[in-house]
Design a protein that fits this description.
Number of domains: 2
Shape: globular
Strand order of the largest sheet: 1-2
Low-confidence stretches: none
Mean pLDDT: 91
Number of strands: 2
Helix content: over 70%
Length: 250
C-alpha cells in the first residue's frame, strides 16, 4: 500500500511536469505535426499511469471482471465506433491520409485519450456517483446522465485550443450521447476495458483525417451510417437496461 502511494505520487508530479513542458511545443526540435501529437500524448500517458496505479484494486473499481462477456456484449457499441470512420470520403478521394509515418503515435494518442477519460469518468466518477445516490430512486439513470453531462462539459475546454464555438457545441452534444452509452456499458458489464476499446476506436475514426490528412469527411454516407448504428445501439442498450432491471426486481 505504501509503495503504491509513493508510485502514485511520483506519477502525479510527472503528470504535472508533462503538462507544463507540453504547454511549450516550441521547446521540441521536431517537425510541427509530430510535436503536436507528442504533446497531446505525453501528459495523458502520465495521467493514465497515475489513475491506473491509484485505482487498481480499490472498490468500487471495474477492472478485469467478465472481460470476454463485456467485449461480446459491447459489439453493437463497437459498431457505433466503426461508423465514425470516414470510409466513403477516403474511397471517393474527398479526404486523404498524408502522414502514415505518424500512424504509430496517432494510435498511442487515441489510446491515451480513451484510457484517461474512461478511467476517470467510468472507473472513478460513475461508481462514486452510484454510491452517493444509492438511496435515491432512479440512481442508475441519475448517475449515468450526470456522469455523461460532466463528460460532455469537459469538452468545452476545446475552445481554448482553437476550436470554434459551433464545433465545440456539436462535440458536447455527441459526447453526451457517448457518455450515456459508455455509462450503460460499464454498469451492465462491470468492466471498463470494453469502454476503452470502443472509445479508442471511435477516436481513431473521428481524428484520422484531421490529424494525419486533409479534406472533408462528414459526407452523406457517413451521417447515414452514424444514424443507423446509433439508433440500433440505442435500442439495444434500452432493451438491455430494461432486462437488467426486470431481472433485478424478480
Amino acid at each position: 500500500m505504501k509503495a503504491r502511494k509513493v508510485v502514485a505520487g511520483a506519477l502525479f508530479f510527472l503528470s504535472l511536469a508533462a503538462v507544463a513542458i507540453c504547454a511549450f511545443p516550441a521547446l521540441f526540435p521536431w517537425e510541427e505535426r509530430f510535436v503536436q501529437l507528442f504533446c497531446e500524448t505525453l501528459p495523458r500517458l502520465m495521467i493514465a499511469a497515475f489513475l491506473l496505479v491509484s485505482l487498481w484494486g480499490k472498490p468500487p473499481c471495474v477492472f478485469g471482471r467478465k472481460a470476454l462477456f463485456a467485449f461480446v456484449w459491447s459489439l453493437p457499441c463497437f459498431a457505433v465506433a466503426l461508423a465514425n470512420f470516414p470510409f466513403s470520403a477516403l474511397i471517393t478521394g474527398a479526404a486523404r491520409i498524408e502522414r502514415l509515418d505518424l500512424l504509430w503515435i496517432f494510435l498511442i494518442k487515441c489510446f491515451t485519450v480513451a484510457l484517461v477519460e474512461e478511467l476517470f469518468f467510468r472507473a472513478l466518477l460513475l461508481p462514486f456517483l452510484r454510491e452517493k445516490f444509492k438511496n435515491i430512486k432512479g440512481e442508475f439513470f441519475l448517475s449515468v446522465l450526470l456522469s455523461a453531462a460532466l463528460f460532455s462539459l469537459i469538452h468545452i475546454l476545446n475552445l481554448f485550443s482553437g476550436a470554434s464555438l459551433g464545433t465545440t457545441m456539436s462535440q458536447m452534444g455527441y459526447t453526451f450521447l457517448l457518455g450515456v452509452m459508455f455509462g450503460v456499458m460499464v454498469c451492465i458489464t462491470e468492466n471498463v476495458w470494453a469502454c476503452v476499446g470502443v472509445h479508442f476506436l471511435f477516436d481513431v475514426g473521428g481524428l484520422l483525417v484531421s490529424d494525419l490528412g486533409a479534406g472533408p469527411f462528414h459526407d452523406t454516407i457517413f451521417w447515414i451510417l452514424t444514424a443507423v448504428a446509433g439508433i440500433l445501439c440505442a435500442i439495444y442498450l434500452s432493451v438491455s437496461v430494461y432486462r437488467a432491471f426486470h431481472k433485478k426486481k424478480s
